[in-house]
Design a protein that fits this description.
alpha/beta, about 180 residues, single chain, globular
Length: about 180
């Protein structure tokens, strides 16, 4: 099975062999690339490195150190993506992130999980499911994933309430000023 076929298979949610040495090689390559990104202080150069690592990006992607990902090529971000310190994205399946998305410190997106049965897990069994995050989303510190248009928190995460018009503060996004 080619690597592209394997990635397509992994995205189906069916069990796959996470111990495949070809996946290990790709993880090692992603680690080298994330090390380069984390050590780069020039924003223009960092953006080029991010675009080389991710599967696709919009304009102005940015990640702070210590960004980590499993493969990189399964990460797709829109315009103005910003990940604060210590972001981890394990992209065994595709991760789609919209425009104008901000991640607080220590946000983690985990598409993959080891199988629960000890013998299957020992043999390298994993499953992965895609993650999608829409436009204009902010994930606060330590969050993994939040549902659309709600405030969610806790461990395990629970929806606290929907975001409503009452949450507007009078800040004008066009001018950057309060009205």
């Amino acid at each position: 099975m080619s690597l592209r076929t394997k990635f397509n298979y992994m995205a189906t949610g069916r069990p796959y062999n996470d111990a495949d040495p070809r996946l290990g090689t790709l993880r090692d390559l992603a680690t080298l690339k994330t090390n380069n990104i984390n050590n780069e202080n020039d924003h223009a150069k960092k953006e080029i490195l991010i675009k080389e690592l991710f599967g696709s990006t919009g304009e102005h992607p940015f990640v702070n150190p210590n960004f980590r990902c499993e493969f990189g090529q399964n990460i797709h971000v829109g315009d103005n993506f910003y990940a604060n310190y210590d972001c981890t994205i394990l992209d065994g399946a595709p991760v789609y992130i919209g425009n104008n998305v901000l991640f607080g410190p220590k946000v983690g997106l985990y598409t993959s999980n080891h199988l629960f049965d000890p013998a299957e897990r020992k043999a390298g069994g994993c499953v992965a499911h895609s993650i999608g995050i829409g436009d204009n989303v902010w994930l606060g510190a330590g969050v993994s994933v939040t549902p659309d248009n709600v405030i969610a928190a806790g461990n395990p995460c629970k929806v606290i309430r929907k975001i409503t018009a009452a949450d507007r503060t009078g800040f004008d996004p066009n001018s950057g000023q309060f009205l």
